[in-house]
Structures are given as structure tokens and as C-alpha cells.
Write a structure and sequence with these properties.
Elements (H helix, E strand, L loop, with lengths): L23 E7 L10 H15 L4 E9 L2 E8 L6 H20 L11 E5 L5 H9 L1 H9 L7 H12 L6 H4 L11 H5 L5 H17 L3 H9 L4
Antiparallel strand pairs: 1-3, 1-4, 2-3
Amino acid sequence: MGTVLGLSPEITMRQIRQFHKGGFWHILNRGVAKTDIFRCKEDYNFYLYKIRESLKKYPVGIHAFNFLPNHVHYLIEQTEEEMSPNKFIASIHTSLGNYINRKYTRAGHLFQNRCKVKNIEEDKHLLAISVYINFNKVLEKLQQKEKSVISDNELQKLFKEAENDPWSSYSIYLGLKEDGITETKFILSLLSDDIKKAREEYKKLSKELITSGYFLKTRDLIFGGQS
């Protein structure tokens, strides 16, 4: 995993991030000291509200997301030259930090250092990365299991949990609901121009990538050399 920046000037200088129009970015941010960011349903809902409001101001495209208690994942596209994704993230995370501090009578930063950012340079990786993000909760549960083989029934249960997860974009990819946040058209078009077929293929691909262990290669792709 790449170096986490935000150290003192005596140790290292901050790396300049070269955002650009048309670029796709995997963005990860954790709670300070890996503590929980969200404590209840209302905290998640406030975050979703701020995202929708900020999308009116910041012209970025969110192609996938997953919010876990102590960290958040995004796949974001920069759609304008002068409005980089880090400005969008900084805006919503400042708002969330202020909200959480007031609500729980706490002080200090909510998030750990700067967010980690990785430019996704090839379209062929976008499908796998969107699956990795949408199934991050499932992947964490699989990694926590002691046994090396998981039954099909257990896997189906985890996939059902992913479909019903209100804090990820997987259900949007399947066409189960709309959220006013996620743009699925481009990534699904990589599978088929027929939206119904593309959704079916996305579900099938998700299972194949997870059961084959390919998500480990995807993790290396998005975390290797991450700034």
C-alpha cells in the first residue's frame, strides 16, 4: 500500500496530485485512528444528503461508492478541468465532520489524514474496481472467515445483503432503485448496450470476480502506489 501523506515537512513533502478532466479515481478515506465515522442510520443519511447537495456545485461523476462504519470508498470521474474530485470530497467531509462533532460533542478531525487517491488509467479496469467497491463489505466478511471454502448458500446470503445495502451503489447497478448519486450507464455499457442485459451480466461478473479471488488482484491495482 502506498505511503499515507500528511506527515510533517521534516519527514516528507506532500505529493502533488495531478487531477485532470476525464480521469477516473479510486478514493478511500478512513476515520481517524480507524475509528467509526458513522454511528447510526441518521449519520449515513446526512452524508448522502450532503453528497446530493454538493453534486449540484461540484461537477464530478460518482460511478460507485460504499460506506462502511470506519471508511468510505468511491469511484469518481472528473468532468471539468478546474473542479477536481478532492475539492468535492473535502467539502462533504468537512460538513460531515462538523455535523458529527456537534451531534456527539466531540472535537478534532473525523477523518485520518488526506484521502488516498489512485488514478485508474485504463477503462478495462473500471468494471473490476466498481465490483470491488460495491462488494467491499462482503469481501471483508469473507476475509474474516476462518475456513478457506464458503458454501454457495453462504455466498448467496452475502450477495443478498449487498443487494439490500443502502450504503453502497450495488443495488443501483442492478436497477433496484435510484439514488440521485450513482452514474452506472458508462460502466454498464462496457458489458452491453442493452441495459437489462448489462445489469444481468454485472451481477454474474460480480460473482465470478469474488469466487475466483480476482478481487485480490483488483485490490493490488487500486492500492499499489496509492498516494
